[in-house]
Amino acid sequence: MLQHPDTSISLLEGRREPSGTPAANVHGVEIHSGDILVSRGGYPTSALIARGNDSPGNFSHVGLVYVEGVSHAASWITRTPRGCSARSPVPQGMSARAALRNRAFSDRQRWVAARVAEAAARFTREQGYPPPYWVLLDLSRTATEALRGAPRTAHL
After folding, report:
1. Residue 30, pLDDT above cutoff 60
2. Looking at beta carbons, which pairs linking 34-39 to residues 24 or more positions away fall under 8 Å?
3. Which of 5-14, 25-34, 113-122, 135-144 has the lowest mean pLDDT?
4. What is the pLDDT of residue 39?
5. Do 50 and 38 contact (CB within 8 A), yes or no?
6. Cα separation of 154 and 152, whole Å?
7. Are 40 and 53 within 8 A, CB to CB?
8. In 3D, which of 114, 15, 30, 103 has the Cα closest to residue 72?
9. Of the N and C termini of the chain, which has fewer Cβ atoms inside 10 Å?
10. How confident is the model at residue 85 (pLDDT cuts 50, 70, 90)?
């Protein structure tokens, strides 16, 4: 999406409904715990998933939104190809330690992704065109290195 923002529809909003669940603002859109996100990937397999079943709609993946009540950090679970059975993000029998490692990895990934998005926007403003793939790789490597040198709680 960073390389081709003009070739995809970024958002098709549904009807706004009142909700008492925690909310977060993600890319200018308010989402709530319990919201269902649907998307269509850009690969041929996503087109096959989107069209290869009897369900209406042109999407290939779904996700259930979870917004943490205090920090309002948003995440999504069960992002699975449409038509496949959804599975728990933490398999039964997984230890608490493994679940915490998984969550820490997700937190780090979100931190790096935010830095790459900021740097890509800055590159676009300064150069007048979106960063090519190899520049995005350099930006992600730089953000990952910055994360490694940051204090443990700086990215949370």
Report:
1. yes
2. 34/64, 34/65, 35/64, 35/65, 36/62, 36/63, 36/64, 36/65, 37/62, 37/63, 37/64, 37/65, 37/76, 38/62, 38/63, 38/82, 39/63
3. 5-14
4. 76
5. no
6. 6
7. no
8. 30
9. N
10. very low
Contact 74, 106 (CB under 8 A): no
pLDDT band at 126 (very low <50, low <70, confident <90, very high): very high
% residues pLDDT > 70 (the chain): 67
Is the Cβ–Cβ distance between 58 and 25 less than 8 Å?
A: no
